[in-house]
Write a structure and sequence with these properties.
- By secondary structure, this protein is of the alpha/beta class.
- The chain has a single domain, classed as FAD/NAD(P)-binding domain (3-Layer(bba) Sandwich), CATH 3.50.50.60.
- It has four helices and nine strands, in the order βαββαβαβββββα.
- Strands 5-2-1-9 form a four-stranded parallel beta sheet, covered by helices on one side.
- α1 links the parallel β1 and β2.
- The protein is globular, with a radius of gyration of 17 Å.
- Bound molecules: flavin-adenine dinucleotide.
Length: about 140
Amino acid sequence: MPDPLHRPRVVIVGGGFGGLAAARGLRHEHVAVTLIDRTNHFIFQPLLYQVATAALAPSDITAPIRWVLRHQRNAEVLMAEVREIDPQQRVVRVDDDRRAIPYDYLIVATGSRHAYFGHNEYARHAPSGVSWAASSSARQRA
Ligand SMILES: Cc1cc2nc3c(=O)[nH]c(=O)nc-3n(C[C@H](O)[C@H](O)[C@H](O)COP(=O)(O)OP(=O)(O)OC[C@H]3O[C@@H](n4cnc5c(N)ncnc54)[C@H](O)[C@@H]3O)c2cc1C
């Protein structure tokens, strides 16, 4: 739907440290921010080890992204997985019905993945610990 205030549309992919910092940094700007994340929550990753070792509960290190941005009137949050970026059409396509979200400016803050330096067979012995699911799994096995 076109923005009734004719603001430039800023789409941010990722609601981690980077995406949230970008969204907050735009809070006083004349833009319409759409932050897209495939989960509904922010994870404070530096404390994932404490979740894995059962020192903290998962809820201690997560917060709903909508809650974090609840006072930001120029921002909306969409829970969806971005599958494709089409720079020619200036849209990102998300998982549900391959819906296209238009943008004037795009910020990609999707984080990083761990690597096993060509030895993917190590993964079953040394899971990444970067996700909430991996830390919870380690916690159950400990
Ligand atoms: C165990 C651990 C300890 C750490 N300790 C420290 C520390 O002490 N100090 C420090 O500075 N840093 C630390 N880090 C690193 C720090 O947490 C990361 O650098 C930081 O989280 C990266 O932020 P980001 O926004 O780039 O990515 P992330 O925080 O990973 O956020 C990426 C977001 O993008 C979303 N996403 C990804 N792909 C898609 C997609 N296709 N569609 C929709 N959404 C998508 C994800 O769901 C996620 O919410 C640590 C990391 C870990 C794992």
